[in-house]
Amino acid sequence: MKIRDHLWIWGHPENSLHHLFGLEHESHVTPIDGIHELGARNLFYIPMGRKVDRNALSAEMQKECNRFGWSIENPEMLAELLPLKADNPSLGILIFDDFFRTEENENSIDHYSIESLVDFRKKINAAGMELWAVFYERDIEFDLTPFLTCFDGMTFWFWSQPTIEQYESTIVRFIEKTPGLKRMVGCYLYDFGREKSADPKLVERELNRDMDFIRDGKIDGVILHTNAVGGYGEPGYDAAIKWVAENGDKEI
Questions:
Q1: C-alpha to C-alpha distance for 232 and 207, rounded to whole angstroms
Q2: Alpha-carbon distance 175 to 142, whole Å?
Q3: Of 19, 38, 111, 155, whose CB has the highest number of CB atoms within 10 Å?
Q4: In this structure, how many other beta carbons lie within 10 angstroms of the beta carbon of residue 44?
Q5: What is the DSSP letter of 113?
Q6: Rounded-to-10 torsion of CA 172, 245, 2, 182
């Protein structure tokens, strides 16, 4: 496989970050545009509560992506997402965004029992898909042990861009806390925690280390966040484009 085959986009509806986190301009880069600009092969679509045509978007992602996934934004949504698999064989993952952020998220662990999550996973697996969740560095002390039977995989994120030393040590801890799970690491192309541009040199160094973790079998992929930063002239976004252009077709 090539490096770009391990790359995903964290896709939001176009212009969904306008007037948020210090991003004051409009952006009309769609998730599919992000695939092409950033050079990835896979895509998560996270509507952020917006009404979207899942059938039409799934058909588009089926055409454009190697693999794609949808976020689960409420318990009732599972009934809408499961049937999509029949016409979209590349739909492989359903994911809970911000699942462990209880103070910010109405669709968090506070609203699901372990039993209900295990049942969710069984239904999703039976349909030929996997159940994943988002986990943040700022929650690294949280005990994930009770949830290891609930999910097939976990994605890991730094809300504020870390130093390379912080990145290295915390990724190792995340790997230790998730035995038996598949893993992906998110790479923010904008520093949302500080509401400022990401350091492009750190973006490049993160991506280089992520490839080492993939080669070592520690993680399965990297998620570039996000198409919605495209169109702002952000140096982190441009650094990711350049890095993938230079490395994406290398075998890994």
A1: 21
A2: 14
A3: 155
A4: 29
A5: -
A6: 30
Q: Which CA distances in Å does 77 have to 44, 84, 94, 119, 128?
A: 16, 12, 11, 15, 17
User: Which one, of 7, 4, 23, lies nearest residue 230 by Cα?
Assistant: 23
Report the predicted TM-score, pTM, of the whole model to 2 decimal places.
Answer: 0.96
**What six digits make up the tokens of 61?**
């992602």
Vertex 2, ends 211 and 64: CA angle to 5°?
Answer: 115
Q: Which residues contact 76 (CB under 8 A, 6 or more apart)?
A: none
CA 138 vs. chain centroid, Å, equals: 17
Which string of b and e fits 56-66 if b means at least 16 CB within 10 Å?
A: ebbebbeeebb
> What's the length of the chain?
252
For 130-143, what is each residue's pLDDT tens digit? Answer: 999 999 999 999 99
Q: What is the DSSP letter of 91?
A: E
Cα–Cα distance, 142 to 145 (Å, whole number): 9
Task: Kindly report the number of other CB atoms within 10 A of residue 7's CB atom.
Answer: 27
What tokens does 135 get? 């986990």
Is the peptide bond prior to 226 cis by the omega test (within 30 degrees of 0)? yes
174: tokens are 């995340």
pLDDT in tens, 44-70: 999 998 999 999 999 999 999 999 999
Decide: 152 and 182 in contact? Cβ < 8 Å.
Answer: yes
Q: Could you give the CA distance from residue 130 to residue 157 in angstroms, rounded to a whole number?
A: 19
